[in-house]
Write a structure and sequence with these properties.
It is a multi-pass membrane protein. Belongs to the binding-protein-dependent transport system permease family. CysTW subfamily. This is Phosphate transport system permease protein PstA. The chain is mainly α. It has a single domain, classed as MetI-like fold (Orthogonal Bundle), CATH 1.10.3720.10. Helix content is 78%, strand content 0%. The protein has eleven helices and no strands. The longest helix has 38 residues. 35% of the residues are buried.
């Protein structure tokens, strides 16, 4: 066998293995999605969105858990977004080659891959133990800590993609450093930064472990940030493990809602990223 035939054979084998691996992964993903859809859609009705979590054997929905999840996730992103964007700006614009920047990037990478249950335990010791009770504030802080590294990394990467000649052109016109960043760098990287914020929101939307140690759960509708607050991940965890069939059906419907929400956020982020790339090419 000559060298060209050998290369062609290796290429075909590599393509075949890659195709089989892709099909294997997509097969299990399809099975999971079908199971989730078939079991979760049975309890997907108006009551699910209008009534609170019921006691065993009674009719009810997930309205308090849906509200709690949306409320805590939104508050966590409101805390994490400005902190993450500012930190990513510092790493990309001011500390590219400094030792402090290298240390900050290393710490951020560690936080990015840290297990969420560790962060939940950290916030438990930091807030729940001193306060003496679980609270929505503690859950919000735990979710914000998980979201910040994602936003820092995406902001940093988006700003580094902005060509330096744009900054140099603005500086040559006499613009100060802060004006160059806010008017040139942010404007050029806004699509990537917004995509990072949405990806961080998708990341925290399905987190269960940190909320078990912080916000826990609430059987009733609550808007008090100093009290435990219902949320979909913990309700799904508790109801799925219960022996009651009606609770298990609600858990499947809650899982379907979270999956649909995360899918929608990810698709929106991808569309924004692709539109941003198309605009830059023009």
């Amino acid at each position: 066998m000559d060298i060209y035939a050998k290369r062609k054979l290796i290429n075909r084998l590599s393509l075949a293995f890659a195709t089989v691996a892709t099909a294997f992964g997509l097969f299990w993903l399809a099975i999971i999605m079908w199971t989730l859809l078939s079991k979760g859609i049975t309890s997907l009705n108006l009551i699910l969105f209008t009534e609170t979590t019921p006691p065993p054997g009674a009719s009810g929905g997930l309205s308090n858990a849906i509200f709690g999840s949306v409320f805590m996730n939104a508050l966590a992103i409101m805390i994490a977004a400005p902190l993450g964007i500012l930190a990513g700006t510092y790493l990309a614009e001011y500390a590219r080659d400094s030792k402090l920047g290298a240390v900050a990037r290393f710490v951020n990478d560690i936080l990015l891959s840290a297990p969420s249950i560790i962060i939940g335990m950290f916030v438990y010791e930091l807030m729940v133990v001193p306060m003496g009770h679980f609270s929505a504030w503690a859950g919000t802080v735990a979710l914000a800590i998980i979201a910040i590294p994602v936003i820092v990394r995406t902001t940093q990467d988006s700003l580094l993609l902005v060509p330096d000649r744009l900054r140099e052109a603005a500086s040559a016109l006499g613009a100060p450093r802060w004006r160059v960043i806010t008017s040139i760098s942010y404007r050029a990287a806004k699509g990537g930064i917004l995509t990072g914020v949405l990806l961080a929101l998708a990341r925290v939307s399905g987190e269960t472990a940190p909320l078990l140690f912080t916000a826990l759960n609430n059987q009733f509708w609550s808007t008090d940030l100093n009290a435990p607050m219902a949320n979909l991940p913990v309700v799904i965890f508790q109801y799925a493990l219960s022996p009651y069939v009606d609770w298990q059906k609600l858990a499947w419907s809650g899982a379907l809602l979270i999956t649909a929400a995360v899918l929608f956020i990810n698709i929106t982020a991808r569309l924004l990223a692709s539109r941003d790339r198309s605009t830059k090419r023009i």
